[in-house]
Amino acid sequence: MASQNSGLTEDEFxxxxxxxxxxxPVLYDVHLFDYKNKNKKGENFKEIQQELRDAGASEQQVQxxxxxxxxxxxxxxxxxxxxxxxxxxxxxxxxxPYYESLKFLIPYCQYYK
Length: 113
What we know:
Blueprint: H1 10-22, H2 38-54, H3 59-63, H4 65-85
Helix pairs in contact: 1-2, 1-4
Organism: Acrobeloides nanus
InterPro entries: MADF-dom (IPR006578), TF_Adf1 (IPR039353)
Protein name: MADF domain-containing protein
């Protein structure tokens, strides 16, 4: 684990963020009643901030988790639809290193902008 001052590596930070979000469906499951509840989402992101601090993330990393999550989710959505459109008879591969970790988002990709 990295020290409090230096934080986690970018890869460690992203993987921990993905795992933390996956445990909180209100942040990605558009079918949940509270999905559009900004207060619930805010509470969950505050929990994630603390979880990441406890894991060694720097304050700078923790400060921008919402923007980071939106960026990660958008990149996954782009890659998902790109792979869907590559219907050439062979299994498409994805260069996005977090694609496998984000597959829990597949049922909701059509709803994300």
